[in-house]
Specification:
This protein is an alpha+beta fold. 56% of the residues lie in helices and 17% in strands. It comes from Pseudomonas fluorescens.
């Protein structure tokens, strides 16, 4: 029993002596000139630190580790350049890839922005072209439906409108009146004063007609030559006759010289007709009725309004 205790005591003393030698070895290695710490003492087991060599000035990452169960200490010292070289290579490669991607995205984005701007320009050009086309079509429609000399509606527009309004009057059982107007002795006016003066006379009479029909639905047209026509929707004989007289008096009071005319001035004669929605009268028939009333006015001495029978 005493021998066993002595043997155990010897073994423990040997282990403690070995650990003491290991600690001294680590301490002596840590204080070698090649591995002196720049900022603080580096010793002890299982530690890692960065030290700067006093000999070559190289900064190294130093590590100590004791091998468990063996009287052995592993010591490593790698320079920062060696450790960071791989990281630098990967970082440079990654940065290069990122820069290439950013460059590609920049080019792609620039191209995309350019395409968007180009598309916007094309859309704006198309919109401008469409608006221009609409405006041209509107102008053409106006030219096609407007009398160039007087600015009133032309015969084509008159025909379209009277068909439309008579159809509306038939559906709504409402009235409609028509005036046919003729400039008295206009051929003699042209022969004496010339066609330029004749054109100016027609323009003035057109203005008097327009000034005396105030409702948006009323339409004045140059029917042909020195003849005019006025469509008055929703109007009966009495209302149409009042409008006819206002126009006739306005022309007479203008006192446009006409030495071969009635009272030495330009005058007009008017035939008045009204549409009965219960009748079978067609637009052409209504024009004929108003024209007959006009003939009566001219035969009766001109410068008057006559209501159709």
């Amino acid at each position: 029993m005493q021998l066993d205790q002595l043997a155990a005591l010897g073994t423990e003393q040997a282990r403690q002596a070995r650990q003491t030698r290991q600690a001294r070895l680590v301490e002596s290695l840590a204080f070698e000139p090649l591995h002196q710490a720049e900022q603080q003492r580096v010793g002890l087991l299982d530690r890692t630190a960065t030290v700067k060599s006093a000999i070559d000035g190289v900064e190294r990452v130093v590590g100590f580790r004791r091998v468990e169960g063996y009287p052995l200490i592993v010591f490593t010292a790698l320079s920062k350049a060696e450790i960071l070289s791989g990281w630098r290579t990967e970082s440079i490669l990654s940065a290069t890839i990122v820069l290439v991607l950013l460059g590609f995205l920049g080019v792609l984005g620039g191209r995309l922005i350019s395409l968007i701007k180009q598309q916007n320009r094309v859309q704006n050009d198309l919109l401008d072209a469409q608006n221009t086309l609409i405006e041209v079509n509107r102008s053409l429609n106006l030219l096609a439906l407007e009398d160039a000399l007087t600015g009133l509606s032309n015969r084509r527009q008159f025909d379209l409108y009277i068909h439309s309004e008579m159809g509306r009057a038939r559906r709504t059982q409402s009235g409609l009146a028509l005036l046919i107007i003729d400039v008295d002795h206009f051929k003699l006016f042209n022969d004496r004063y010339g066609h330029v003066a004749g054109d100016e006379c027609l323009r003035k009479i057109s203005a008097f007609i327009t000034q005396n029909i105030l409702r948006p639905a009323d339409l004045a047209a140059r029917y042909g030559g020195e003849e005019f026509a006025v469509i008055l929707p929703g109007t009966d004989y009495a209302g149409a006759f009042l409008v006819a007289e206002k126009i006739r008096r306005a022309v007479m009071q203008a006192a446009i010289e006409h030495k071969d005319g009635v009272e030495g001035r330009v005058t007009i004669s008017l035939g008045v007709a009204a549409y009965d929605p219960a009748s079978q009268v067609q637009p052409e028939d209504l024009v004929g009725i108003a024209d007959k009333a006009l003939y009566v006015a001219k035969a009766g001495g001109r410068n008057m309004s006559v209501i159709a029978n």
